[in-house]
Design goal:
Elements lengths: L24 H15 L3 H14 L4 H13 L3 H14 L3 H17 L3 H14 L4 H81 L3 H34 L5
Helix pairs in contact: 1-2, 1-3, 2-3, 3-4, 3-5, 4-5, 5-6, 6-7
């Protein structure tokens, strides 16, 4: 069996399979090739070998288990989850069952599905109470679940706080917009009044200017009147002068 270390997300691999005698030689050969590629960290190539073995014998539990491992290493957690879950439910071998539940727990843990991972590690420990890795990861999953819930609570509070602040900001903005609108309205009214006064003043000036202006006919009439007055004035002066001369001529010298 591959060695375990006390680190979270450690996968359990089943023993090397060339000693197994439960399947056809061709299936065992494919699994051995898969194991060799897996040890070289050539996980996609190992997956191909395991799938070929699966195709030849779908009930061969070791190829199912190792196929889950190869998918997990490629971060195909959903794919790994399917194979580990199926094996955990179907296998009758306690060792396979414990290891399948353990790896399933790690798969959930990688997806931050902490409640599911806790349940899987508990099932693993039911089948192998001595597993230190399962105990370690169970403790870690519980710690992460607590942290996750605290973060969710904090996020909810922040969301509520942000929503309240956004509503307040919106109200303040609406108030500011309304004040600006009112001020613009006042300014417009003031401008309209000023324009009206200016217009009235211009109309008054134009009216006065119009009164001061006379038509050419009126100007001619006034000029004619002045000429007539001038003629009448000259006539009066002539008469007065004639009278003066006449009066002077009648003076008797004693």
């Amino acid at each position: 069996m591959r060695s375990k270390t006390n680190i979270k997300l450690v996968l359990t691999m089943l023993p090397l399979l060339w000693a197994a005698a439960v399947s056809a030689q061709s299936v065992k050969s494919l699994v051995r090739k898969g194991n060799k590629l897996y040890d070289q960290k050539k996980y996609p190539e190992a997956e191909v070998m395991y799938r070929k073995a699966q195709a030849k014998n779908p009930k061969y539990e070791k190829s199912t288990f190792n196929l889950g491992d190869a998918l997990y290493q490629q971060k195909n957690f959903k794919g790994a989850e399917n194979f580990f879950g199926h094996l955990a439910e179907k296998t009758k071998t306690p060792e396979y069952k414990a290891n399948a539940w353990y790896n399933l727990g790690n798969t959930y843990l990688s997806q931050k599905q902490y409640e599911k991972s806790i349940s899987a590690f508990i099932q693993s420990l039911k089948n192998d109470p001595t597993s230190m890795d399962a105990k370690y990861n169970l403790t870690y999953a519980r710690k992460m679940l607590k942290k996750q819930k605290q973060q969710q609570k904090k996020n909810k509070q922040n969301k509520k706080k942000n929503k309240k602040q956004n509503q307040k900001n919106k109200q303040n903005q609406n108030k500011k917009n309304q004040n600006k609108k009112n001020q613009n309205k006042k300014n417009q009214q003031k401008q309209n009044q000023q324009n009206k006064k200016q217009q009235q003043k211009q109309q008054k000036n134009q009216s006065q200017k119009k009164k001061q202006q006379i038509s050419p006919q009126e100007a001619q009439r006034i000029l004619n009147a002045l000429k007539n007055n001038e003629k009448n004035t000259l006539k009066k002066l002539e008469k007065q002068k004639a009278k003066a001369i006449k009066a002077k001529a009648n003076v008797i010298n004693w």
